[in-house]
Every structure is written in structure tokens, then in C-alpha cells.
Amino acid sequence: MQFHLAATVAVVVLAAWLKVARIDWLWLLAAITGVWVSELINTSIERTIDRISSEPHPLAKTAKDAAAGAVLVAALFAAAVGAIVLGPPLWEACFR
Ligand SMILES: Nc1ncnc2c1ncn2[C@@H]1O[C@H](COP(=O)(O)OP(=O)(O)OP(=O)(O)O)[C@@H](O)[C@H]1O
Predict the structure, then answer these.
(1) How many CB atoms lie within 10 A of CB 49?
(2) I want to staple 67 with a disulfide (CB 3.0 to 4.6 A). Which of 18, 31, 42, 58 is the partner?
């Protein structure tokens, strides 16, 4: 959660500094929201499974791994959006 908060602040500050277009703000906000929502659901599933039983069980493993996979998918989407939206203007600002 602390990593997500730091990443969110960094992206928002960088996007504001680069003055990205309004439509690009929507992509960034969608990506940030996707990561936060998937992480919150992942945490909820993990805690619920741990509350029910700490015994190893194949279904518990599948549920936790699927929830973690959802976070990974959202993070990959966010990385792609970040690269597409922030990459070119950042390159422009740094090297031209
Ligand atoms: N009850 C269980 N039965 C079987 N496998 C489990 C069980 N609990 C966890 N595992 C396996 O161990 C891995 C790590 O579990 P853990 O609960 O530490 O999740 P985590 O993703 O590391 O959570 P956190 O975000 O709290 O660090 C899971 O991805 C899952 O494969």
C-alpha cells in the first residue's frame, strides 16, 4: 500500500509537471484506480482466507494467487499507460 501511495503521488506530480492533456489524465486516473481497486480486493481476499483458516489448502492457494494475478494485470496496464502517456513528454523535457 505504501508503494502504491508513493507511485500514485509520483505519477500525479510528474503528470502535472509535464502538463499532460486532459484525455491523458483520464488514462492515468483509470490506471491508478485499477491498481488501487485490485490491491484492496487482493488484501481483502488474503485476510478473509487467513481468517477462515491458516491451514494450507489448494483452493486457498488458487484464490490468493488469482487475486495477486489481478494486481499484476492492473500493474502491467498502469506501466503501459505510464510509458505511453508520460514517456514521450518526459523524454522531450529531459533530452531536448
Ligand atoms: N492457506 C494457504 N494454502 C495454500 N497456499 C497458500 C495459503 N496461504 C498462502 N499460500 C501461498 O503462499 C503465497 C503467499 O501467501 P501470502 O498470504 O503471504 O500472500 P502474499 O501475496 O505474500 O501476501 P502479502 O501481500 O500479505 O505479503 C500465496 O500466493 C499462495 O500461493
Answers:
(1) 17
(2) 42
